Amino acid sequence: MGRHPVMVRQVCPLIPFDLDQCPAVLAMAEFVWKENAPLELNFSLSPKLPESSINCLSLNSGKTKTSAQRLDNLWSHTCFEAFLARPGEPGYWEMNVSPNGDWNLYQFSDYRTGGKADPLAEAPEVSFSIDRVGCRCTIRISLKPWWEHTEMPEIALTMVLEDQNGCLSYWALNHPGDKPDFHDRRGFLHW
User: Fold this and answer.
1) Sheet containing strand 39-47, strands side by side
2) Which residue, of 36, 68, 85, 168, has the fewest CB within 10 Å?
3) In this predicted model, what pLDDT tens digit does every residue of 19-47 receive, in sequence order?
4) Rounded CA separation 86/89 (Å)
5) Per-residue pLDDT tens over the stretch 65-108
6) Nearest Cα to 163, choosing from 52, 70, 68, 65?
7) Where are the domains of the chain?
């Protein structure tokens, strides 16, 4: 008798690095990992108080266009991110997606070493919606052929939020260091 396919779903709050410099929003991130299937990520933002809104955020990265592009430096504006690493190995990948669907996937050989766009990555499917109660970004990315492993990766879910004044806040599952550093493997979920 064969074994059943594995699926893991995790919903986590994202916390800002600096409470004094973050907008008044609540942030949640979710991932769904299934063997031999695209990785699904969901990022949700809602107002912290019922009478407030998320209008304080800059959610369009200053662009309006019909098709997403593979671009660098997406983290300099609002950007949803995921980091994936194989347990016990120093290398990892960083995925960046802007609300308008621009994206990139970088491969690192070790902590902040390498950082080259992975040539095997395909554009993710990105859906972004916003309404009076918040916004949601859903991302589906094929892990093949750049992630050839059957085991679930160590993962970090993070985001950068830009407010209407151009100020950035940094959100993650946790912040293990004395500055925001999404590459710090101590901030990844380990299985």
Assistant:
1) 116-117, 103-108, 92-97, 79-85, 154-162, 168-172, 7-16, 25-34, 39-47, 134-141, 125-131
2) 36
3) 888 888 999 999 999 888 899 999 999 99
4) 6
5) 556 899 999 999 999 999 999 999 999 999 999 999 999 999 99
6) 52
7) 7-58+70-187
| CA distances to 53, 70, 183 from 40, in Å | 26, 19, 20
Residue among 44, 9, 33 at smallest CA distance from 128: 44
Cα–Cα distance for residue pair 185/7, rounded to 1 Å: 23
Global pTM reads 0.91
Separation CA 56–CA 60 (nearest Å): 12
Residue 77 one-letter amino acid:
H
Distance CA 188, CA 82 (A): 10
Task: List strand residue ranges (DSSP E) for the chain, in order.
Answer: 7-16, 25-34, 39-47, 79-85, 92-97, 103-108, 116-117, 125-131, 134-141, 154-162, 168-172
Query: Count of residues for the chain?
Result: 191
